[in-house]
Design a protein that fits this description.
Elements (H helix, E strand, L loop, with lengths): L23 E4 L2 E6 L8 E2 L6 E2 L5 E6 L15 E3 L1 H6 L2
Antiparallel strand pairs: 1-2, 2-5, 3-4, 5-6
Length: about 90
């Protein structure tokens, strides 16, 4: 009896390349970048809960997509650092 060829599972699509320390995506009119704990070196104030995001805390940075810039280091952007949970709970 002939052997059946082995089925190989489909390979997942490659992830997009990281941009300066985090993954960038668009969510509801905002460009969002995830920041790892090792990349978080400064303290920021979260606009969602008004609490401080301490250095070493993973979080997200969001800026309006209509600015048309993919570079979060652009001085004209209104970047905001959010706790990841606060960003998910925002209205």
């Amino acid at each position: 009896m002939a052997r059946r060829p082995r089925r190989h599972p489909a390979r997942p699509a490659p992830a997009p390349p990281p941009l300066r320390g985090g993954w960038v995506r668009e969510e509801g009119g905002w460009i969002v970048r995830s920041i790892s704990g090792t990349a978080a070196t400064k303290a920021y104030r979260c606009p969602g809960c008004q609490q401080e995001i301490l250095p070493g805390t993973p979080h997200v940075v969001a800026w309006p997509a209509e600015d048309g810039a993919d570079d979060p280091d652009d001085a004209n952007l209104e970047r905001r650092h959010w706790h990841t949970g606060c960003w998910r709970r925002r209205v």
